[in-house]
Design a protein that fits this description.
disordered N terminus, 18-stranded antiparallel barrel, mainly beta, two-stranded antiparallel ribbon
Length: 531
């Protein structure tokens, strides 16, 4: 592990000065996935507490994220009124718009009547803009690098205009690295300029952003976005689409029809690094549908994916097109499909029990039972989340635990030819981050005090095979009669890691720290702000 040196004391002193304010602020039209590697805001683990809310709360449970935040407009003035730049033409003491600027005095009923009439005619528009950023200290055994200082800064924009909602978090990063040739901490593109090639200057920099631009009408939402989709009731180990994958550009339509939820999307995936010219000539796209039925405390989910290589078929976006059937209408070498089913049940508003089965490929149901060759490509996940909210001397405490198990067979997410229709983006799986031929057990205990102070301890037991079939680019044969045997985790060693984390969330500032011990040791300390 890269050791924390004396310069971190300066960082610690900086962190101590950030614990100043009293109220956390969150503003976004979507309940989004975790930003665990970049674009950290003031909130620590927001998706964790969204799943906590689903566990201890009432009402229907749906598990397709990012998900619309229906309270965004209703509470916009309350949560965003302290932004650096704020404009709202429907609240406060004045109306402005269409050349009108009108303030009514107490008792002037005629003025109030005219003002109310104008309010019904004017569009509802609000926008808030904040400066966001932070400073990080990061190091890792696997990364082989120490990043200090890691500085980021940019703009956080959110707002709405009638049925249109939008959010943008865009930042520039500049980092100091101890390694001669730095690796990317977040696995996305990183620009490294050596001193001899850059007129005496040496720096590492990059830009990151996520955005949503959505139109809402009652039961339908159409969204243009750059983000990551997370489908299913699991938190760490979902198999189809996982929140810890790398972000991609997408178009989605979200239908809420009573207890039925339908989500359809198209995504633009990359095969090679972001700046590679090969991306001009070789394209990888994804279409996916998710169908959820919420009945009482139970939710039944079906997810299906189709990955296309140099063979874009927009028809697959239609949510009533069964992708696992339509797949047979295209060349086998240019597309890759998967089908998954999941189930979630909530008990006594205290516990969620859930499971997901992911089918990448099979010759027949018998092949799944025998499970002795690569014609059986499947994965399975099961988990439990328990939680409870209570008050202690006037302080609200949200506490809980999550335990999950995931098994991913060899060759899952792979395809016939490397760098074609793999279920991956920039070389990393879209689903379970352990990838093919892996097994994971996660157990986390967490708590949050007054929505300001967060603490957790995560235990992870991880096995990863080394045989061929353990990487997404490992290829499978073209013909079904070529039944190559497979071995699950043959000789794989168990890796155990223990990760305590703590954070403070304020009105304008935050601090967080995560340290991983034993295997895959790493450290991540951050002080952030939003003004």
């Amino acid at each position: 592990m890269i050791l924390v040196k004396s310069r971190t004391y300066a960082f610690t002193a900086l962190v101590a000065t950030t614990l100043l304010s009293t109220q956390a602020v969150a503003g976004s039209p979507v309940i989004g996935t975790e930003h665990s590697r970049n674009l950290r805001t003031l909130e620590m683990a927001p998706m964790l507490f969204e799943y906590h809310r689903q566990t201890v709360g009432e009402g229907r449970q749906f598990f397709a994220y990012p998900q619309r935040d229906t309270s965004f407009i209703r509470h916009f003035a309350e949560t965003e009124g302290k932004a650096l730049l704020y404009y709202d033409n429907m609240r406060g003491g004045a109306i402005s718009g269409h050349g009108i600027d009108m303030t009514c005095h107490d008792g002037d009923t005629a003025c109030v009547r005219v003002k109310n009439e104008l309010q019904t005619k004017l569009p509802s528009i609000a926008i808030a803009t904040s400066v966001v950023g932070g400073i990080d200290y990061r190091g890792g055994e696997t990364l082989g690098d120490t990043i200090w200082p890691g500085i980021d800064g940019g703009v956080y924009l959110r707002g709405y205009a009638d049925s249109l909602e939008f959010v943008l978090d865009a930042r520039i990063y500049d980092e100091g690295h101890s390694a001669s040739y730095p690796k990317s901490w977040d696995r996305e593109f990183l620009e490294f300029q050596k001193e001899e090639n850059n007129s005496g200057m040496e720096y590492t920099s990059y830009a990151r952003y996520r955005t949503h631009f959505a139109f809402n009408y009652d039961w339908i939402r159409v969204d243009l976005a750059r983000d990551v989709l997370h489908w299913g009731p699991g938190y760490y180990n979902n198999l189809t689409l996982n929140q810890f994958a790398l972000p991609y550009n997408m178009l989605s339509v979200d239908l809420q029809l009573g207890p039925l939820h339908v989500f359809s999307f198209y995504g633009d995936l990359r095969i090679y690094g972001s700046m590679s010219d090969k991306n001009k000539d070789e394209t990888r796209n994804i279409f996916g549908h998710r169908y959820e039925l919420a009945v009482g405390n139970a939710t039944f989910g079906i997810s299906e994916l189709t990955i296309l290589y140099d063979n874009l078929k927009p028809w697959l976006f239609v949510p009533t097109v069964p992708l696992f059937m339509e797949k047979g209408n295209y060349s086998e070498s240019s597309n890759n499909g998967a089908l998954a089913m999941d189930f979630n049940y909530r008990l006594f508003n205290t516990v969620r029990l859930y499971t997901e089965f992911f089918l990448d490929d099979m010759e027949s149901p018998i092949s799944l039972v025998k499970n002795d060759n690569i014609e059986a490509k499947w994965a399975w996940m099961a988990g439990l989340q328990a939680g409870h909210d209570f008050y202690l001397k006037g302080h609200r405490i949200e506490a809980g635990t999550i335990a999950e198990y995931a098994r991913v067979e060899p060759y899952v997410y792979s395809h016939f030819i490397k760098n074609t229709a793999q279920m991956a983006h920039l070389g990393y799986p879209l689903g379970n981050q352990g990838g093919p031929n892996s097994q994971t057990i996660d157990w986390t205990v967490y708590g949050r005090l007054d929505k300001h102070i967060f603490a957790s301890v995560r235990n992870t037991w991880f096995w990863k095979g080394t045989d061929y079939g353990s990487a997404v680019n490992d290829t499978t044969p073209h013909h079904n009669h070529m039944k190559i045997s497979k071995k699950f985790l043959d000789g794989a060693k168990m890796q155990y890691s223990l990760t305590p984390a703590i954070s403070y969330e304020g009105q304008y500032v935050s601090f967080m720290g995560e340290i991983t011990f034993i295997d895959d040791r790493k450290v991540y300390l951050r002080a952030g702000f939003k003004w």
